[in-house]
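Slide 14.
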Amino acid sequence: MNSTAKIPVALVEDDVPYRAYVEALLESAGNRRVALAVGSAEEGLAKIAATRARVLLLDVGLPGISGASAVRTFLAAQPDLRVIMLTALDGDELVLESIRAGACGYVLKGASSDALLGAVDDALAGGAPMSPAIARRVLALLRAAPAATPATAAGSDEHLVALTPREEEILARVAAGGSDKEIAAGLGTALSTVKNHLANIYAKWRVRSRTEAAVKFLGRKDRPN
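Slide 15: predicted structure.
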């Protein structure tokens, strides 16, 4: 394996100056390369399979097919793709639509360069990059409409593998909107320990992200005994 190989990242963003900024930022990071940079979902969908990209940064509000509507198609073309939505948080429904479709996280367009690069790293590590503010908002919306979540729609939460007491505690805090750092501080444990527990939860429940795990958790908790 070539340890110097750069990680291919795809970018679909119609704002030309912002796309150029993100493209330059990714290329300057050293261990990443921009495998695709286009301005529409249609063009991205036509080219994504050939890129072998591992992460896709996708604008949520594209002209034509919106980024939110295109998530499932991108994942059908490349199932292992980690999709991060780029958003100004203009519409709650687009946020929910993208998560239901399989997006693993969100980055605000006003986020710092470090936050954007960190989100890519987090997604590659199996995490769900999402600011605590967005996470709390999304989870509040999911609580308000549990019948529309993927967990209840699929009925897959009826046979979930049992979690350990610590995993239950961590997932309850995730569902309350806590970030990994906040959870680690609240439990008096290392951040890496929290991440390891979350990785175990993802494997047990066959989910792709902390948000999807929280949805299943909330759907299970809302069921009458």
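Speaker note: The chain has two domains: 7-130, 149-221.
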